[in-house]
Amino acid sequence: MDNLSVDHLIGIEHLTPRDIEIIFETADRFKEVINRPIKKVPSLRDTTIANVFFENSTRTKLSFELAEKRLSADVVNFSASGSSVKKGETLVDTVNNILSMKVDMVVMRHPNPGAAKFLSERVDAKVINAGDGTHEHPTQALLDSYSIREKLGEVKGKKVVIVGDILHSRVALSNIYALQKQGAEVMVCGPTTLIPKYIHELGVKVEHNLRKALEWCDVANMLRIQLERQDIQYFPSLREYTMLYGLDKKLLDSLSKKIVVMHPGPINRGVEITSDVADSKQSIILNQVENGVAIRMAVIYLFASKINR
Ligand code: CP
């Protein structure tokens, strides 16, 4: 088996194109496993994993836990709410206490950008970033690309537009790195105030007109407006945002070709995407969620093979 070039999964920025291929090839094998009547393999019977979530999550948390259990790992779950973090315990103290219980790997979501890297430099365990503030969400980008590969055959040469709140989105940044490393062309689309000033340094196209962006692309990844990360008002009202950047069925059907529609979730139905688009045949939103388990099984399996025992 080929080895990954990194010891922790902090971001897609640090992965090589070959790393992404290895993860996809491993996910292919696990996807076959999770479609069998017996969905479990004994691969990680000797591995203990802590899922440490300092921020809310539905998909990522459930998906990691399911992936770990399907690999037969022992799993402990930690949520900051209801923990001693509320009494002032630091991140490193919290995680070191968990590691004293002989944990091999930490899957962490944290509101601060850089928290996963900070942790990886201070603890003796593999660290998997499950989203660190506005920085990266590597497993989301991997499952997004994997879903494009599954739907369109390959990612190379495909045109992908990421629409919405690019400024506050870790999903956008991880997707830009992942798609470019696989040879896709990337465009971002949204109001000027929600496009970061450094975007051109990333080598992506910028389009402020949604119809033009959709006519250009093969795949549209519609992002949620992250109101919880917005300290000031970036657009006059949600209603106006929806009028300019929301994808509805009328707009989708009026395009000159059939595009693939994605969304990382959680969806705000009626804001960035209408229900009839989210639930349409062109949407692969639930395929993304399904593929998340196979991708996370692959990631955990590959990083577990690097644990020093
Ligand atoms: N896509 C995603 O990260 O969803 P959750 O916040 O529910 O984990």
Instruction: Tell me roughly what share of residues is in helical segments.
Output: 25-40%
Main beta-sheet strand count, sense and barrel state: 5 strands, parallel
CATH class of the largest domain: Alpha Beta
According to CATH, what is the topology of the largest domain?
Answer: Rossmann fold
Tell me which CATH architecture of the largest domain applies here.
3-Layer(aba) Sandwich
Oligomer: single chain
Structural class: alpha/beta
CATH superfamily grouping of the largest domain: Aspartate/ornithine carbamoyltransferase
How many domains would you count in the coordinates?
2
N-to-C SSE string, H for helix and E for strand: HEHEHEHEHEHEEHEHHEHH
- Ligand inventory: phosphoric acid mono(formamide)ester
Average pLDDT confidence is: 95
Keywords: Pyrimidine biosynthesis, Transferase
Pathway: Pyrimidine metabolism; UMP biosynthesis via de novo pathway; (S)-dihydroorotate from bicarbonate: step 2/3
Protein name: Aspartate carbamoyltransferase
Pfam families: OTCace, OTCace_N
Gist of the model:
This protein is α/β, with parallel strands linked by helices.
Any key phrases for this structure?
single chain, 309 residues, alpha/beta, Rossmann fold, five-stranded parallel beta sheet, four-stranded parallel beta sheet, 9 strands, 38% helix, globular, binds phosphoric acid mono(formamide)ester, Aspartate carbamoyltransferase, Asp/Orn_carbamoylTrfase
